[in-house]
Amino acid sequence: MPFDENGQPLASTLADYMLPGAPEVPAMRIDHLQTPSLTTEFWPKGIGEGGAIAPPAAIVNAITMR
Fold it and tell me: What is the pLDDT of residue 50?
């Protein structure tokens, strides 16, 4: 953002800003971390209660939004 010698911003509207494009996006690095469970037969881990939490909220929303 450009400033003048008194510290006042020179950009007065959002049209004065440069929009970032593809060259400004930093390089991404994807890492996978696997930690098997040693307490199960084939070392899988559970995924929590994701499947049990969403349906009741969706049902209540569907009933109340009718």
Answer: 62
Tokens standing for 47? 């995924």
Structure tokens at 12: 């007065």
Q: Which residues contact 3 (CB under 8 A, 6 or more apart)?
A: 9, 10
Spatial CA neighbour of 37 closest among 28, 47, 49, 29:
47
Query: Which amino acid, residue 29?
Result: R
pLDDT averages per 10-residue partition of the chain, 66 residues = 84 76 87 80 72 80 80
Vertex 55: Cα angle to 54 and 57 (nearest 5): 70
Residue with tokens 């469970």: 37
Distance from C-alpha of 11 to C-alpha of 58, rounded to nearest angstrom? 45
